[in-house]
Design a protein that fits this description.
The protein is built from five helices and no strands. By secondary structure, the protein is mainly alpha-helical. The protein has a single domain, classed as Serine Threonine Protein Phosphatase 5, Tetratricopeptide repeat, CATH 1.25.40. It is globular and about 35 Å long.
Length: 114
């Protein structure tokens, strides 16, 4: 057995991406209406107590958020409810670094306790 080999385990949150605000690698950005509808569904799942469903749906939506700073707070609330504190912290720190003057970022930082 190779004791130096790193054990790979699936992670709910991918490794940090220094040049991207979101905790997911970004692919093709969805249309605004699709993002808002799907994020609303995720938030309803959280509100209804279906955290597994919310996590699954958020992880499907995450790679398609694009540069929508206006939803940073809402995504942050969901991450917090899902117990993804480290992903939330990294997301907010990256958003602050990439968009220091943005009001949506400032609101998310203040409201989510950073």
């Amino acid at each position: 057995m190779d004791v130096d080999a790193k054990e790979e385990s699936p992670s709910a949150t991918p490794p940090p991406l220094d040049d991207q605000m979101w905790p997911w690698p970004q692919g093709e950005s969805y249309d605004d209406l699709i993002v808002k509808r799907k994020l609303r569904q995720v938030m309803e799942s959280v509100k209804g107590g279906d955290l597994d469903g919310a996590a699954r749906d958020l992880d499907k939506l995450g790679p398609h958020l694009g540069d929508r700073k206006e939803i940073l707070f809402h995504v942050g609330v969901v991450l917090k409810k899902l117990g993804r504190e480290e992903a939330l912290r990294r997301m907010l720190e990256t958003a602050r670094r990439l968009h220091p003057e943005d009001q949506h970022v400032a609101t998310a930082l203040t409201s989510l306790g950073m």
